[in-house]
Each structure stands twice: as structure tokens, then as C-alpha cells.
Design brief:
- This protein has 189 residues and is mainly alpha-helical.
- It is 77% helix and 0% strand.
- The protein has five helices and no strands.
- Pfam families: DUF892.
């Protein structure tokens, strides 16, 4: 079983007829940076919509904090692009696009209130888990590539994403999930 890609091999993507050749870890690293850059930039536009549709003041405050943090992540990624000499271009992230499409659908299918809040938290945690996986991978790549300054910057974003995920769990478990369950039980009886 082969797990490494040699310099002469390539990974070919077939999404929308495109062919991408990736020849090494550095290429994977650069593609990953462009992917998370797109995701973070799109989140700066999505989080305000989530705030508008949330009813819990605690959730709205968390989303506001995330918006500020996401803007910092965009700036941090731009610093990483500058440090590495990679052009700061965004490459559409299909995974994040799917999560955000699902989020928009959830908002449309639920009434304003605690049930929607529970759904927004779940959708937001899917976003956080994707970001945690991506920042963790990019951090490991940066360390392997000897990009120590970049690794430190990526570690900062990774740590912030983990803390936000934990805070969302706390908001959900402290009251929203229980209230959403009661709201569901009332409408189903």
C-alpha cells in the first residue's frame, strides 16, 4: 500500500472537470491555505446572517465574537501568505460550501426561537470542526516544512477554534438544547 506521493506522481481532482496536480507536501499546504482562506472570508459574510436569525442573547454574543475572530483569521492567513510568498488567493472550499448551504436550509426550515438556535449551534459546530481539522493539518504541514513562524500563527487559529467549539457546547448544554426539547415536546403532544 502506498501512502506517499512521489515528486513525479500527482493527485488529480475531477471536480467540475478540473485537473489539479499536487506534487508534494508543499503543494498540499498551499492548496489548504487557499481553501481555508476562502472558507474564512465566506464566514465573515455568513456569521451576520446567523446572528440575525438567532434568538438567544448568549448565542448572538458568541456569533459576534466569532465574527471578530474570523476577521482576525483572515488577516492572519494574509500574513501567512506574505510570509510564505504564496499569492493570497481564495480557492472555493466545497466542504465549507456544503456546510453553509445546509446552514441556510436549516434556518429556512425552522421558526425563530430555541429550536433554530439549537440548529444554528449544530451548524456552527460543523464549521468549527472543519476549521479545527484544517488548521490542525496545516499546522502539522508547516512544522514538517520548517515554517515555524507560520506554524505558530496556525496554532493560534487552531486554539481559538477549539475554544469557540467548547463555548458553543456550553451554550447548547446550559439551556438551549433543553429548551428546544421542551418546545418540540409541546408541539408534538
Amino acid at each position: 500500500m502506498r501512502t506517499a506521493i512521489s515528486k513525479n506522481e500527482s493527485i488529480k481532482g475531477t471536480a467540475k472537470g478540473e485537473t489539479n496536480s499536487t506534487h508534494g507536501l508543499r503543494d498540499l499546504f498551499e492548496v489548504g491555505l487557499k481553501d481555508i482562506y476562502w472558507a474564512e472570508k465566506v464566514l465573515t459574510k455568513t456569521l451576520p446572517r446567523m446572528m440575525k436569525n438567532a434568538s438567544s442573547p448568549e448565542l448572538v454574543n458568541s456569533l459576534k465574537n466569532q465574527l471578530n475572530e474570523t476577521q482576525e483569521h483572515v488577516a492572519r492567513l494574509e500574513k501567512i501568505f506574505e510570509t510564505t510568498g504564496v499569492a493570497a488567493t481564495a480557492k472555493k472550499c466545497e466542504a465549507m460550501g456544503g456546510i453553509l448551504k445546509e446552514t441556510n436550509s436549516l434556518i429556512k426550515q425552522t421558526n425563530h426561537g430555541v429550536v433554530r438556535d439549537a440548529g444554528i449551534i449544530a451548524a456552527d459546530q460543523k464549521v468549527k470542526h472543519y476549521e479545527i481539522a484544517t488548521y490542525g493539518t496545516l499546522h502539522a504541514y508547516a512544522k514538517t516544512l520548517g515554517e515555524n513562524k507560520v506554524a505558530s500563527l496556525l496554532a493560534m487559529s487552531l486554539d481559538e477554534e477549539k475554544k469557540t467549539d467548547a463555548a458553543l457546547s456550553e451554550i447548547a448544554m446550559s439551556q438551549i438544547n433543553r429548551l428546544a426539547h421542551k418546545a418540540t415536546a409541546i408541539t408534538n403532544t
